[in-house]
């Protein structure tokens, strides 16, 4: 095991700060078996964002180029948390420099680049360098628990999945132009939040075998340029110069799984739903519902045959459910947790794998770049279906 691990995060934006915080807490989760962690650098081309995040989260310094991080001898592990179109260059550069890389989803903005990144990841892994992708919602206790209920046969085979990831960061026409509104068909809401929803769907229900009924819509055609740098979904001050929105505000599609069928809807214009990943999954023996706005609970229906008393029940999640026991400083029932905790579990899982802890003694491993490619193939199929009047695309 390494004597210590030096850590950097590239991107000090909305999700970069979640990664920066997660590496701070990773060694405080569960048993103290990780090597000492050194929080070394936050890399951001915006020096103000980088400097502020480094001071806030206790990193030794900040850098303004990814190359400085690639060249630094005191850095072993890097999260890449910048615009999707920048992932390939930065990830490939870091892997070539021998850094372990955790890349944000979606793997890239094009399938071609994602496949090249997966090739680079396989080559790096042969040299002992890990590349993983952060599908954070697999760390969400309620989602991991529903998966267990399906896999262990309590719920049994999935018959029908109905999922939505509604966000509203773009519902106001005054929301500033940003990298999220640029790119080809399917690079908008579908890539941004549809990547999460499709990953969760396959995590629960197994492989999607075909996509049909694809629909992509841009409902706000232009957006004002911001006057300064914009972070995440911030509604910054804007100028009176507008640029065209290139990609989807809304996407919908249907899917077939090995054992069931599903429908999906994603949006960035769903006013009032800032971050609503919500789904219902119907199985042989009952059903379950999850809503990210209430991450501490699931709704569970088990068909126990008593007829008139059957119905959904609320299950409050706690130490008996995935991730919680030892995974919160105070892990008592009904203490509560949220999306930031999932980034902590993700960082911990990545560091456990890098540190060489046996898989059986570790959190479930992070997803591989090949899984990132698979996810982009699904998104690509949705876009292809949408561009062909909803045609069925077999995967
Ligand atoms: N897992 C999740 O829940 C989750 C949530 C949000 C975003 N994301 C993903 O994280 C990534 C970043 O999204 P975000 O919302 O944090 O973006 P953001 O716009 O808030 O932040 C991006 C940051 O990157 C910086 N930057 C731009 N070019 C750079 C470069 N060449 N080198 C270094 N820094 C550079 C910007 O200055 C900015 O601070 C995306 O891939 C997104 O899909 C994941």
TrEMBL record:
<feature type="domain" description="GFO/IDH/MocA-like oxidoreductase">
    <location>
        <begin position="144"/>
        <end position="288"/>
    </location>
</feature>
<dbReference type="Pfam" id="PF01408">
    <property type="entry name" value="GFO_IDH_MocA"/>
</dbReference>
<dbReference type="InterPro" id="IPR055170">
    <property type="entry name" value="GFO_IDH_MocA-like_dom"/>
</dbReference>
<dbReference type="InterPro" id="IPR050463">
    <property type="entry name" value="Gfo/Idh/MocA_oxidrdct_glycsds"/>
</dbReference>
<keyword id="KW-0560">Oxidoreductase</keyword>
<dbReference type="GO" id="GO:0000166">
    <property type="term" value="F:nucleotide binding"/>
</dbReference>
<feature type="domain" description="Gfo/Idh/MocA-like oxidoreductase N-terminal">
    <location>
        <begin position="6"/>
        <end position="126"/>
    </location>
</feature>
<dbReference type="InterPro" id="IPR036291">
    <property type="entry name" value="NAD(P)-bd_dom_sf"/>
</dbReference>
<keyword id="KW-0520">NAD</keyword>
<dbReference type="InterPro" id="IPR000683">
    <property type="entry name" value="Gfo/Idh/MocA-like_OxRdtase_N"/>
</dbReference>
<dbReference type="GO" id="GO:0016491">
    <property type="term" value="F:oxidoreductase activity"/>
</dbReference>
<dbReference type="Pfam" id="PF22725">
    <property type="entry name" value="GFO_IDH_MocA_C3"/>
</dbReference>
<protein>
    <submittedName>
        <fullName>Gfo/Idh/MocA family oxidoreductase</fullName>
    </submittedName>
</protein>
């Amino acid at each position: 095991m390494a004597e210590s691990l030096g850590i950097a995060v590239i991107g000090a934006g909305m999700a970069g700060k979640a990664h920066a915080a997660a590496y701070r807490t990773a060694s405080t989760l569960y048993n103290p078996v990780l090597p000492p962690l050194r929080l070394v650098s936050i890399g951001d081309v915006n020096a103000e964002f980088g400097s502020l995040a480094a001071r806030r989260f206790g990193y030794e310094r900040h850098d303004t180029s990814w190359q400085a991080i690639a060249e630094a001898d005191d850095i072993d592990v890097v999260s890449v948390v910048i615009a999707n179109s920048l992932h390939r260059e930065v990830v490939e550069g870091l892997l070539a420099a021998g850094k372990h890389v955790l890349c944000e989803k979606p793997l890239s903005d094009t399938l071609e680049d994602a496949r090249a990144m997966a090739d680079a990841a396989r080559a790096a892994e042969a040299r002992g360098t890990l590349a993983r992708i952060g599908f954070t919602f697999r760390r969400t206790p309620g989602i991991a628990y529903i998966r267990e209920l399906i896999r262990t046969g309590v719920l049994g085979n999935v018959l029908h999945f109905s999922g939505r990831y509604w966000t509203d960061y773009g519902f106001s026409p005054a929301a500033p132009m940003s990298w999220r509104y640029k790119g080809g068909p399917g690079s908008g809401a579908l890539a941004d939040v549809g990547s999460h929803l499709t990953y969760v769907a396959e995590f629960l229900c197994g492989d999607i075998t075909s996509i049909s009924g694809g629909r992509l819509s841009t409902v706000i055609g232009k957006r004002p340029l911001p006057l300064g740098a914009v972070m995440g979904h911030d509604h910054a001050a804007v100028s009176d110069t507008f640029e065209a929105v290139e990609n989807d505000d809304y996407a919908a599609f249907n899917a077939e799984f090995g054992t069931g069928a599903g429908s999906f809807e994603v949006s960035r214009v769903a006013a009032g739903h800032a971050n609503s990943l919500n789904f219902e999954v119907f199985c042989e023996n009952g059903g379950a519902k999850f809503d990210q706005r209430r991450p501490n609970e699931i709704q569970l229906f088990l068909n126990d045959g008593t007829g008139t008393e059957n119905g959904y029940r609320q299950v409050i999640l706690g130490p008996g459910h995935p991730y919680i026991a030892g995974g919160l400083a105070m892990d008592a029932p009904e203490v509560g947790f949220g999306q930031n905790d999932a980034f902590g579990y993700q960082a911990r899982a990545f560091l456990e794998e890098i540190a060489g802890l046996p898989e059986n003694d570790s959190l479930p491993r992070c997803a591989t770049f090949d899984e990132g490619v698979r996810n982009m193939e699904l998104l690509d199929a949705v876009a292809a279906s949408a561009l062909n009047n909803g045609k069925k695309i077999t995967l």
